[in-house]
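Quick entry between incubations.
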Amino acid sequence: MASYAYYPGCTLYTKARELDLSARKALAVLGAELEEMPAWVCCGAIYNTADDDFAGRIGATRNIVRASALGDTLVTLCAACYNVLKRAKARIDDPANAVERERVLNFIDEPYEREVRVVHYLDVLRRDIGWDAVKAKVAKPLAGLKLASYYGCLMVRPAAVLDFDDPEDPQVMDELVRALGAEPVRFDFKTECCGGYLVVNRKDVARESSARVLENARAWGADAVITTCPLCQYNLDRLRDRDGLPVLYFTQLLGLALGLEPDELGFDNCAVDPRPMLAEKGLL
Amino acid sequence: MAEGKSRRPEVAGPEPAGTQSASTDKPAISPVSRRPRVGVFVCHCGINIAGVVRVPELVERAKTMPGVVVARDYQYCCSDPGQQIIRDSIKADKLDRVVVACCSPTLHEATFRKAGEEAGLNYYRTEIANIREQCAWVTKDRDEATDKAEDITRLAIARATHDESLEPVGVTVNKRALVVGAGIAGIQAALDIANAGYEVVLVEKQPSIGGHMAQLSETFPTLDCSQCILTPRTVETGRHSRIKLHTYSEVAEVSGYIGNFKVRIRQKPRYVDFDACTGCGLCMEKCPARVEADFERGMGKRRAIYRLLPQAVPNRPVIDAEACIYLQKGKCGVCAKVCPTQAIRYDDTEKFVEEEVGAIVLATGYELLDHEKMSAYGIGRVPDVIDGLAFERLLSASGPTQGEVKRPSDGRVPKKVVFVQCAGSRDREHGMPYCSKICCMYTAKQAILYKHRVHDGEATICYIDVRTPGKGFEEFYQRATDEGTTYLRGKVSKIFRQGDKVMVWASDTLAGRKVELEADLVVLASAVVASPDGVELAKRLKMQLDGHGFLTEAHPKLRPVETLTGGFFLAGCGQGPKDIPDTVAQASAAAAKVLAMFGQDKIFHAPTTAWVDEDICVGCGNCELTCAYGAVKVDLQRGVAAVNVALCEGCGACSVACPSGAMSHRNFSKKSIYEMTEEAVR
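Done. Structure below.
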């Protein structure tokens, strides 16, 4: 069984527990394992773009250094962790930053065993496992389900560094949706802002932003929105009245399609319970 | 004028006289039969050269070089007195080679060679030492510049020392032209050539001629109806006794060379006998199959048996086999039943026709950028986002709505229309980096025409810059603003559907804010791109294309309608985006070039071509594989390579590829290259 070093990050241990659980279980069905790296620390939560942000990068880099004990690939799930870790890695990889790299690694003062590739869970599905293999393991095809894949900003930008997908019309989750037997909805707001951290001090702005995303997804006929970002999930799911489109982590529906028990997938954590909709589609 | 009767030239075909066989004449192995007498003339080019290179010193050094009997300098050698000095010196000093140290040979090589020829020196015995572009302009230090100029001059002398006297190769010209593409460019070129008295073969892939111009409503900046000004030309073309029209056809293959091309034309099956058909149109009325009409850009439908437009030339329908119920399922046959002249031929197949021509005009045209590349603009996904050509069809009196502006989703008259300029143009990330040139004007026109049709309608144009370089263009743009069009300066970031509206996110860079516009219809001025079929043909013909698929002209300023391949000329948007007046002007220019060629019985080709030493050649065929022009072929019977000098452009690739050293280049032989190299590293 293939095993990957895994960085869950803080949110997946708290608010987004269902993302972590469903992802691990689903990957096990697909014949791979997420091995949680030891002694992981905060990724930094946002990537500071200040020119000199020595301290701000230490946490992220420390995680990369520690993951190097386990292997050459570090898998993440939270969009923010993915963004921060991958950019921190790119920063120390840049030959122009050789001095900084040395400074940071000296400060961390732990063995950096090998170069580590920071990837997203979706990369593992797309590149290592492949859609055909995913399709072959689908026990309960999500037939009749129309899903809007919402990527937000952190998964795809800055495009040159993340090199994850088309920054304006990303496709990877849509491909997954297809592999699971559901129908991807080609909506317009795949990468528009959910409101982000404005939810803290300008709830009105965040509410308006996230409402537009949902409105557009609904206009294109979606039954639910899927995402990989805990902040997006929170803003879309919670900053509104308690009705409307369910907002799920893609791993929850992946798990459902792979035949996991619905009770294991944390559907009850969603503010808008997706279960009535799934039951109506005959998927529960 | 010969009325194109001489279709088959007297001496032409695969082995034109004085070409292939002549190339087997061995040049004298030792070119220096007696001591060479070289004259060196150094040009000051004002201060261009003399400001950096110490010309008098260079002249003194040149005098000591081997073979040099005279060295002189002059302010401007290209001037009349400058040329006279060279002519006089050739006679007085009995020169048998001349080296002019001056600017690039692309500028004045011909000038000096002609001057030498006037004084009795063979044209190919004058060489240029480029001490301006390759020395004076790129060197600061005067000592270094003078040394480098000396090296360059010495190399040119070494080369000249091995120059032989050569005579240009004459090729007979088949005075008949092929024009590919019958849009306004091809039509204009064909008419100009035909009206001068020569036969033209005009090939068009669509069932009728007229190209994109036939789709347009009215034309800027005069607002004259596109059909009204185009149809006199299409009618004249269709009826011209010297224009042979092949519609619904494509060029499959071109062989031969300048003056003597053989063209194979693929005629798609039309399922209608063009001779029997009278164009009455009964079949099109009765046909039960309806499909989206490409010509209407998704704004209207047509039958399976169709013509593009009522004024079609030729006025004969064709059957779209994919849409035809009879051809797909074997039942129906309505068109055959109603046809009064029994012209329907369900068993029609594709046919090939051969034509022989002397010159080819490529007028392969444009398309609009594939909307998949602009996913943020919603076209293809949001029904009320359409491109400029689709809007032309909505405005056109002969279009699917008879000129009434109705939006595609629900047929309502849009009260708010947003026009988006640079949808894919000037956009390095999503589209094309270049400016499509016509969009500023046609968008202004479309806004004006929309306001004429819908008086209480609002037209907003999102633009980055408005470019109006043309006669009457700026005034036309002013007219659009005067008539109430809102111009909003900023790029559009996103277009999406909300309810029955189309939302447009843009920025207003003059007010410094983001804007959200609500529209009933959005019209994208999509980037003009080279027609994919044209690109495919050009690649097969080994034409040079720029990075975006546009045909490359021989010189961007001075040879704008010629290509680097002899006998091929360019016209219209296949060469780059342009409006109708520019297209017509360019088409007439291409026709003039063809006529200049047809004005001569023979055309002459530089004899500085590849040459095979048959004693050495083993017939391995590397040269044939390397040749980009198809000029070298291995003669399988004799087992040696043979050069068709009429096709050879003298690039030298075969000489490099030849493993045995049999292939070489006239007046650029291996020996002269060795000696030049020796001089260079001395």
